[in-house]
Amino acid sequence: MNSLIKRNELDPVAVLRTISAPKDVSTRKLTAPRHVHPSFYGSICPLETPDGPRIGMVRNMPKMTSKL
């Protein structure tokens, strides 16, 4: 788990709402797991994702979601 360094008020919330996909080497070059599935609407934020090789593999719950 990332350290909870408090840079602003929403930083700890963002870290706790992160959903990481498995770090399997065999899926590194696949594009299908990185696509936004229609069932994610309202439960996963498609805009908040890291840059680089983990793009699309780390997903975040929207800030205003209270329950899934």
UniProtKB/TrEMBL annotation:
The protein's name: DNA-directed RNA polymerase
Record's keyword annotation contains Transferase: yes
InterPro entries the record matches: RNA_pol_Rpb2_3
Keyword RNA-binding in record: no
Span of domain RNA polymerase Rpb2: 8-64
GO annotations of cellular component type: DNA-directed RNA polymerase complex
E.C. no: 2.7.7.6
Gene Ontology terms: biological process: DNA-templated transcription
